[in-house]
């Protein structure tokens, strides 16, 4: 088991990102929804994060080591699970995860390839999904290939 997997295995959903990574962000200095929401979600227990909070955090590259596995679990139930914007926007946020993450986390890459992408393609709803979702599926197929 790699170092990051060991660190990750010691965490539970009752922990916050601040507790897990030991970083305490100061109060936001920019008054924007995204900044305020990202600061706030770092202080919430992981098991209380909504789909939208997961989408936002992963899309911003926050806490990927702990949040991508949670997102993959939720997407295994429904690959086109919506956040607040459109069907499939959780999946679309995964398309912004750096390739280096997938290289360092082969188990998550396998889960993406075998469970999520297979289900998304077999689902039959893809042609009716928003363009953003269709593009994310194409991008993620390349990553998980």
Task: List the SSEs and their pairings.
Elements: H1 3-9, H2 17-21, H3 33-41, H4 51-59, H5 64-77, H6 89-94, H7 99-104, H8 106-122, H9 131-144
Q: Key features?
A:
145 residues; mainly alpha; 9 helices; disordered N terminus
Task: Write down how many β-strands occur, each being a DSSP E stretch of 2 or more residues.
Answer: 0
Which whole number gives the mean pLDDT? Answer: 88
Which structural class should the secondary elements be placed in?
Answer: mainly alpha
CA radius of gyration is 15 Å
- Beta-strand residue percentage: under 5%
Report the biggest beta sheet as strand number plus sense, adding barrel if it closes: none
How many helices? The count is 9
Distance between the termini: 23 Å
Task: Describe the global form.
Answer: globular
SSE pattern, N- to C-terminal: HHHHHHHHH
Unreliable runs: 1-6
Q: What proportion of the residues is helical, as a percent range? A: 55-70%
């Amino acid at each position: 088991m790699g170092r990051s997997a060991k660190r990750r295995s010691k965490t539970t959903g009752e922990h916050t990102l601040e507790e897990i990574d030991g970083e305490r962000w100061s109060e936001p200095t920019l008054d924007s929804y995204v900044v305020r929401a990202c600061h706030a979600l770092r202080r919430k227990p992981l098991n209380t994060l909504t789909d939208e909070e997961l989408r936002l955090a992963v899309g911003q590259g926050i806490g990927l080591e702990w949040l991508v596995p949670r997102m993959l679990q939720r997407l295994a139930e429904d690959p086109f699970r919506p956040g607040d914007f459109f069907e499939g926007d959780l999946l679309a946020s995964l398309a912004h995860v750096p390739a280096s993450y997938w290289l360092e986390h082969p188990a998550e890459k396998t889960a993406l390839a075998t469970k999520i992408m297979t289900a998304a393609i077999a689902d039959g709803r893809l042609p009716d999904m928003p363009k953003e979702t269709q593009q994310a599926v194409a991008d993620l197929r390349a990553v998980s290939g």
